[in-house]
Amino acid sequence: MTSRPATLGQLRESGWESVPVKEEVRRNAARRIAAGHPLVGGVLGYDETVLPQLENALLAGHDIIFLGERGQAKTRIIRSLTGLLDEWIPVVAGSEILDDPYRPVSRYAKDLIADRGDDTPVAWVHRDARFGEKLATPDTSIADLIGEVDPIKVAEGRYLSDELTLHYGLVPRTNRGIFAINELPDLAERIQVGLLNVLEERDVQVRGYKIRLPLDVMLVASANPEDYTNRGRIITPLKDRFGAQIRTHYPLDVKTEIAVIHQEAVSSWPSGVRVEVPAHMAQIVATISQLARQSPHINQRSGVSVRLSVANYETLVASAVRRALRLGETEAVPRVSDLEALASSTSGKVEIETIEEGRDGQVVERLVQQAVLTVFKETVPSDRLRGAITDFDEGKVLHAGDDIPSARFVEALSELPALRELVTRLGSLSGVSESAASVASATEFLLEGLHLAKRLNKDAAGTRATYRAR
Fold first, then answer.
1. What is the mean pLDDT of the chain?
2. In principle, which of 9, 161, 359, 442 could form an S-S bond with 426, CB 3.0–4.6 Å?
């Protein structure tokens, strides 16, 4: 930083050119697109849907609003846009609103340049400091967004009509940057009018004093589609200001859902326990969320966030780790019996639509069963089930449950050769080791799948279950 220009005169000699923030974003976005690099990182499943629209909006220099339910990475996309700003830009040193040395906006910067000329000190600001964000709430005020008269400055002897008495709000402090408003429809209409004035008309009144603020701001917002389209929640001029309206969505398939889970879920667990999650268990967790988004018993207007999948996956693994710690095992592999634990992580993230008391648990239980059966049918060929069913025809039973040691499953399979063959095949497909814990997980999955497919009977009591022939 010491080699950068330190005064306005040095800045002019360096040849640095000032460009509007939208032009800056357009230029850097074009470079990324031409190089084949993604505009935003850590966002999965949007390559063919959302990101092309985002590229168009940025190249066109539009203000953007993202419409989508909760948990659709809207905020993550918005925050990542700062990566499209230049890494460093010069500002008038001491300016509260990042004044452009060539085009000052505040009275402070104008007076300083008029007084010092080419000797005006210049500071350099990183792009991370050029992002402002506000969650729109009904109590948000003009003072929060635009500014308010500072009584301390008035007490120092300045007149109320003096622009230097103004304490700037979030929007002016994001001058030459990106300002984001989350949940825009929750912003009171009178505040929306004030926001429109400073962004479109370039002026605002504070305590009856009209000041001119030709700010250079890129506006990005997020909203729930239901609220955004509800007549009267957003003033028409503000809605008209957004050049691009981009609709986000949840993962369209199980594969993408699993990729998001692996990216976001906790990966560190207590030392001394090795965690391994079979592919079929991760697929069950993802399928639960996919089925919930289609269920008539779930409020779809509220949405089923990807956070549900992440929380369920973490809870599933935590249940397996807890069992391993209690039983003194060194490996934790989630089983079907661990799915009982998902009731706590699911109930708070979905809104059940039912008029009957106490049906929430039944709806969640049914979703889990449907997910297990769906994954079972996709994973295990039906022509291989006959032998496993025959193993039970001679009156053999098999006990499963959260508190049964993994070694006991290995012992039981010695008397069920056909089922043992299915377990070995499933283990190779899941990409897990052939440890006792993995065998236990595969066995419980196959038993529960056979039961849900109406091939075996099941007697359940809590987390314990006994499987026998029909």
1. 87
2. 442
